[in-house]
């Protein structure tokens, strides 16, 4: 926790410098006008959306082992959305004017839509999570009558946040790298990998240190779902790569920048791009084969690889090659500046603090022996 | 962008350098003053409405406030115009690629006319140097060429700025409606409404939108070395002055190379005396020596500037602010917002040519009303081989390229 607070302080001081001097403190310039912040934003939208992977089986099929996990997923979604909003806030040039979003350019701007669906998704998840926690505090089950519709609503809402974020990119005809119909499906499948990857690791930590009752079966089921998602993700990537390289048009240049480089120089993103593809493929195999899926060492290696693979895919490989070369053919080699790294650290710190706080509040609901207040009294009465 | 005319800039021999040092030593005070000024501005802008939603009274108040604010900040009286579009006018531009020599005068005229930041540098116009025979493969273009002589053998030059798309992606994507198309076809930005999200920059196919990554600085002390040929009294502290600027590669420039400068500029001699020009400089052709350009204008001063023997006894400021502005055009911007070419609204809505069209030494730039069948631009469209950039994106630019010869 102290580390997280330190992260936030470092981030805050770097952000203060950025506000004073302007975004010139970042590595972004006119040629590459979005960078690390928007990459992180895109990645985290995926993490937030991925809560549905767990919601769907848990609520629709009433699949027992996952049910408590859903609450954790929802809390993770809430923290991820808060980080998303923070990443947009640190990226804009005039944060004090973001209230202008209240008078949006509807329905034409996808960014206006994005703000709407992100906040809507945040509201739904917060409502459900707090209701469950509130009722749990009094030792009562949650009110199915209105939680269920909300949860059902959160499924399309999750799909919508990632779809709208993908449309935000794919609607730009000028950027051939993004202007592809399979961008939204790719976003969804990669999200269904990265979000659960975080949850897999989180659950094991909770199980070990907070003595959570989480069955192996649940973890393995999640890993199995991830294997399918990763397969589709890699398939879609392959389809994209085939199209670009086989048709070999001018648009190929962005993929060349991504995987090799231009004008005889290796691009700085190429090693990351390859590492990402390799990590994702290895993880897919690990999760596909039942033996390695059920072995916790290989399971965890797979989860980390997937997290890394998708983080690079969304955080680096999506944004930067979209801008390189620039619209007038210029190659500006973007790399995040120290300020950007520090600010991002701060945002992740905020997310971690929010998540921990939420989780601590939810503990009494998640673990009966931690129940406090009326719920504890009820439990004591029952046992007596 | 690197300046191709470094040789004609002098830096070390003039007292204005020490003046700059003086400024540096006063930086702390300056920062404090700047922040104070900036704060009221930020406060004012925080509540400012979108330009299109201001009532006439509110607009008047806003303009008065802005003019006072700019005067305080830049030490000069400012005019912030709000001239609306002229009825039955749709502005269009055409550029003759067979003439353009790549001298970048348009780019620099634009900088001084439109109060673009000199540091960090913002340029609305990028001139791309392209090897001949490569079509329009922009991936082979070089915007950073540095040549002693232009045009370079075997190259063509393609100046690109905002194409004023009829079907403009930038306007479509802006989440807060801070950028829109005016009835005369010009895409404008409300600098007080833009939140700086840069979505429009991602959407523009021509790299035309520029972001103020840092606080724009218009006065850096850069000046052009000139020689004063004569200074005749014109009564009551006014003098008619003729100065001469040496040209780099005049033989490459096609006649007539008349270059009216665009903005009224302060004028400084070796002792650090500042003369304020009173009229716009008018170029004087010098038939005897094609390697120079002369300017004639009036200055206000107690005594006449002494005539000079050397080329670099006087500095002619390249980076004075232009106080003749338009709300949606060239008024000073601040950090964190997007800006772009607006066809010099402050000029064109008052019947003048854009600065770039006026300064082009080879006359490759044609500007006019697309709705007027007798206009030069309509003649070009009807009679020349015309094309637009990235036609396949259906942006429908109102900026055309053509081959005149
Ligand atoms: S060239 Fe770019 S900035 Fe200009 S109107 Fe078109 S999209 Fe907008
Ligand atoms: S940067 Fe400004 S003008 Fe461009 S889309 Fe964002 S708010 Fe609109």
Report the structural category of chain A.
Answer: mainly alpha
Low-confidence stretches of chain A are none
The mean pLDDT of chain A is 90
Please, what is the average pLDDT of chain B?
Answer: 80
- SS field, number of helical segments of chain A: 15
Note the beta-strand portion of chain A: under 5%
**Biggest sheet: strand arrangement of chain B:** 8-9-13-11-10-14
Shape of chain A: globular
The hetero compounds bound to this protein are: iron/sulfur cluster
N/C terminus separation of chain B: 30 Å
Biggest sheet statistics of chain B: 6 strands, antiparallel, barrel
Strand content of the residues of chain B, in percent? 15-25%
User: What distance separates the N and C termini of chain A?
Assistant: 38 Å
Q: Say how many strands of chain B there are.
A: 19
Order of helices and strands of chain A: HHHHHHHHHHHHHHH
Query: How would a crystallographer describe the biggest sheet of chain A?
Result: none
Walkthrough of the structure:
The complex is a heterodimer of chains A (384) and B (405). Chain A has 384 residues and is mostly helical. Helix content of chain A is 73%, strand content 0%. Chain A contains 15 helices and no strands. In chain A, helix 1 packs antiparallel against helix 14 (338-366) and helix 7 (183-209) crosses helix 12 (296-315). With 405 residues, chain B is an alpha+beta fold. Chain B is 21% helix and 22% strand. Chain B has nine helices and 19 strands. Chain B has helices at residues 15-25, 27-47, 56-74, 105-113, 169-173, 199-203, 345-348, 355-359, 376-383; strands at 79-81, 91-96, 126-131, 155-160, 179-181, 187-189, 210-211, 223-233, 238-246, 266-269, 274-277, 282-284, 292-300, 314-317, 324-326, 338-339, 365-369, 385-387, 399-403. Chain B is globular and about 60 Å long. Chain B starts with 14 loop residues before the first helix and ends with a strand. At the A-B interface, helix 5 of A face helix 2, helix 5, helix 6 and strand 7 of B.
């Amino acid at each position: 926790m102290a580390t997280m607070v330190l992260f936030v302080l470092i981030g805050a001081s770097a952000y203060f410098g950025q506000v004073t001097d302007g975004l010139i403190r970042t590595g972004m310039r006119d040629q590459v006008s979005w960078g690390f912040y928007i990459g992180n934003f895109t990645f985290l939208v995926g993490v937030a959306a991925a809560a549905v992977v767990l919601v769907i089986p848990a609520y629709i099929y009433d699949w027992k082992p996952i049910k408590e996990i859903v609450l954790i997923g929802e809390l993770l979604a809430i923290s991820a959305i808060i980080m998303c909003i923070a990443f947009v806030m640190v990226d804009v040039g005039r944060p004090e004017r973001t209230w202008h979003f209240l008078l949006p350019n509807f329905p034409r701007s996808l960014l206006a839509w994005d703000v709407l669906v992100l906040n809507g998704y945040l509201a739904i998840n917060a409502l459900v999570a707090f209701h469950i926690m509130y009722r749990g505090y009094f030792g009562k089950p949650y009110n199915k009558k209105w939680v269920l519709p909300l949860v059902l609503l959160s499924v399309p809402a999750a799909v919508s946040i990632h779809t709208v974020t993908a449309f935000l990119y794919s609607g730009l005809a000028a950027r051939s790298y993004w202007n592809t119909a399979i961008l939204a499906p790719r976003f969804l499948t990669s999200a269904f990998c990265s979000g659960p990857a975080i949850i897999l690791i989180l659950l094991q930590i909770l199980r070990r240190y907070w003595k959570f009752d989480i069955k192996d079966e649940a973890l393995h089921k999640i890993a199995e779902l991830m294997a399918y998602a990763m397969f589709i993700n890699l398939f879609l990537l392959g389809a994209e790569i085939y199209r670009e390289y086989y048709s070999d048009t001018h648009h190929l240049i962005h993929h060349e920048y991504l995987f090799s480089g231009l004008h005889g120089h290796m691009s700085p993103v190429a090693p990351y791009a390859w590492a990402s593809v390799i990590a994702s493929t290895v993880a897919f195999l690990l999760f596909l084969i039942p033996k390695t899926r059920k072995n916790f060492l290989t399971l965890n290696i797979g989860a980390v690889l997937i997290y890394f693979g998708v983080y690079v895919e969304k955080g680096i490989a999506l944004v930067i090659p979209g801008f390189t070369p620039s619209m007038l053919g210029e190659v500006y080699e973007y790399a995040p500046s120290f300020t950007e790294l520090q600010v991002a650290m701060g945002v992740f710190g905020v997310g971690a603090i929010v998540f921990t706080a939420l989780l601590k509040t939810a503990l009494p609901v998640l673990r009966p022996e931690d129940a406090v207040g009326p719920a504890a009294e009820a439990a004591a009465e029952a046992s007596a | 962008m690197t300046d191709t005319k470094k040789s004609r800039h002098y830096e070390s021999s003039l007292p204005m350098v020490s003046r700059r040092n003086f400024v540096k030593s006063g930086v702390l005070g300056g920062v404090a003053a700047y922040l104070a000024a900036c704060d009221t501005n930020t406060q004012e802008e925080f509540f400012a409405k979108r330009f299109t939603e201001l009532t006439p009274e509110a607009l008047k108040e806003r303009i008065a406030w802005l003019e006072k604010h700019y005067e305080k900040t830049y030490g000069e009286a400012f005019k912030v115009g709000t001239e609306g579009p002229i009825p039955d006018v749709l502005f269009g531009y055409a550029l003759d690629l067979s003439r353009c020599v790549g001298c970048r005068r348009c780019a620099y005229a634009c900088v001084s006319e439109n109060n673009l930041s000199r540091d960090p540098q913002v340029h609305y116009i990028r001139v791309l140097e392209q090897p001949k025979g490569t079509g329009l493969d922009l991936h082979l273009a070089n915007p950073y060429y540095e040549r002693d002589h232009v045009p370079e053998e075997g190259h063509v030059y393609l100046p690109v700025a905002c194409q004023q798309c009829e079907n403009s992606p930038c306007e479509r994507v802006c989440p807060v409606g801070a950028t829109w198309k005016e009835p005369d076809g010009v895409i404008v930005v409300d600098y007080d409404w833009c939140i700086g999200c840069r979505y429009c920059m991602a959407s523009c196919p021509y790299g035309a939108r520029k972001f103020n990554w840092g606080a724009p600085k218009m006065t850096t002390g850069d000046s052009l070395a000139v020689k004063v040929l004569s200074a005749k009294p014109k009564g009551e502290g006014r003098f008619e002055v003729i100065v001469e600027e040496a040209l780099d590669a005049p033989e490459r420039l096609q006649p007539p190379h008349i270059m009216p400068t665009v903005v009224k500029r302060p004028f400084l001699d070796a002792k650090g005396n500042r003369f304020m020009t009173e009229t716009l400089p008018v170029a004087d052709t010098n038939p005897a020596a094609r390697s120079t350009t002369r300017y004639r204008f009036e200055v206000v001063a107690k005594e006449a500037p002494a005539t000079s023997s050397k080329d670099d006894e006087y500095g002619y400021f390249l980076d004075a602010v232009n106080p003749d502005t338009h709300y949606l055009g060239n008024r000073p911007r601040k950090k964190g917002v997007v800006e772009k070419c607006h066809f010099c609204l402050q000029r064109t809505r008052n019947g003048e040519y854009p600065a770039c069209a006026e300064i082009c030494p080879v006359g490759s730039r044609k500007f006019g009303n697309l709705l007027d069948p007798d206009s030069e631009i309509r003649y070009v469209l009807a009679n020349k081989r015309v094309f637009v950039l990235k036609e396949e994106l259906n942006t429908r630019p109102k900026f055309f390229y053509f081959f005149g010869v």
